[in-house]
Specification:
By secondary structure, the protein is α+β, with helices and mostly antiparallel strands. The protein folds into 2 domains: 1-88, no CATH class; 91-242, Phosphatidylethanolamine-binding Protein. It has 6 helices and 11 strands. The strands form 2 sheets. Strands 3, 5, 6, 7, 10 and 11 form a 6-stranded mixed β-sheet that branches. Strands 1, 2, 4, 8 and 9 form a 5-stranded antiparallel β-sheet that branches. Strand 1 and strand 2 form a beta hairpin. The longest helix has 29 residues, at 35-63. The termini are far apart.
Length: 245
């Protein structure tokens, strides 16, 4: 590829928000001004989508127990390898058969950024106050999403739309990276997220009582509960721990 253009590797890293801040800004500015790179970025996005929709369903059974070394993979792998990393990112809700990209089921994945490092967060992983966290979801074909949380300090929050009163309409019905990020506070202990998907907007007021009941159960209840008794068409969950740096 012409060195004046962005490489496939960099385009993939940009799409996954895996570049350092300055490099990300420069790459995005180039992409905004360059029709050739925008077209290539579209081709790579289509490749990832094709892999998820057409290849993953035939290979998922062999990937349900990824090797231990899989978590060491980094964002800089080439385009096809990036598609494979996406498979390893798809962790199901506890007790539910893996469905991310296979049967149209809902899923939620976290990515964290600290200093110059960006990484995929593993279920139950310890994060620190001040870490920036982003979300990627598969809404299972449903158009609205509400991402809420409950933590060990008894706090309940709406993370998407941030501080919002009801679900937000997603831009597409495939795998979506939710814009923006949150900065973790200093409340120690477990924090569980629920991504709630629906055909019509779901009010936070309809969800808050279930979150508060879960918070009242303490840290163990937060770690153990994987579903909320709320009127969502589909839901996914993710647990992490907040500890000192």
């Amino acid at each position: 590829m012409n060195p004046a253009h962005l490489s496939s590797l960099k385009l993939d890293a940009l799409a996954l928000d895996a570049l350092p801040a300055r490099e990300r800004t420069d790459a995005q500015a180039h992409l905004d001004a360059c029709a050739t790179c925008r077209a290539r970025a579209g081709e790579l996005a289509a490749l990832r989508s094709h892999f998820t929709v057409n290849v993953l369903p035939r290979t998922a059974p062999a990937l349900r127990r990824p090797p231990a070394w899989a978590s060491a993979w980094r964002w800089w792998v080439p385009a096809l390898a990036t598609a494979a990393v996406l498979l390893l990112m798809l962790r199901p809700v506890a007790g539910v058969e893996p469905e991310f990209g296979v049967k149209g089921g809902a899923a939620l994945q976290l990515y964290a950024h600290r200093d110059a490092r960006t990484w995929k967060v593993e279920e139950g992983e310890a994060l620190s106050p001040g870490d920036q966290v982003r979300f990627r979801v598969d809404p299972g074909g449903l158009p609205y999403a509400l991402v809420v949380s409950v933590d060990g300090a008894g706090q309940v929050n709406t993370y998407h739309p941030y501080g919002g009163a009801r679900s937000a309409l997603l831009p597409t019905r495939g795998v979506v990276e939710i814009p923006g990020s949150i900065v973790l506070d200093d409340a120690r202990g477990p924090e569980r997220l629920f991504a709630l998907f629906s055909r019509e907007p779901l009010a936070f007021d309809a969800v808050a009582p279930a979150l508060k009941e879960l918070a009242a159960g303490g840290a163990d209840a937060i770690r153990d509960r994987t579903r909320l008794p709320v009127p969502a068409g589909a839901q996914a969950t993710f647990l992490f721990e907040k500890t000192s740096p």
